[in-house]
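Fig. S4 source data, part A: sequence.
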Amino acid sequence: MLGLVNLDYALNHKEITILIDRIQYWIDIAEYDLDTAQVMLDGRRFLYVGFMCHQVIEKMLKAYYVFINNDNPPYTHNLSLLAEKGGILEIMTEEQKDFIDLLEPLNIEARYPKDKEKIMRSLNFELCKDILQKTRDLYQWIKKQLLTE
């Protein structure tokens, strides 16, 4: 059950149901992307491991934004901006913030061919395996922030 008891806004039952559905939408597609990142790693499609890991964290940050603000998240792929606007950045560890900084260019590089070759040369199985594990860890941590304890 989502931890809706400590929110700064009051909702009736129908509004709570709608809010939970909106949050669950982001979590569901983040989970799908996490599975896809694993498939990309297994297939040694390293550029897309990074891209999908970025997508996972972006969608979880959007779920958190909806949770905190009861509003649609900003139309951005900028992880730091999403974390800041959602209010989660202030409770993240330095390691988590550094990881977001590592993921940030992987979204852009996979979409635009200009630097694609450069980023592809920098990725290998061990690095992508580490990125995927850190993505799983951050995914779980954000999800925990959405749950009651």
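Fig. S4 source data, part B ends here. The chain has a mean pLDDT of 89.
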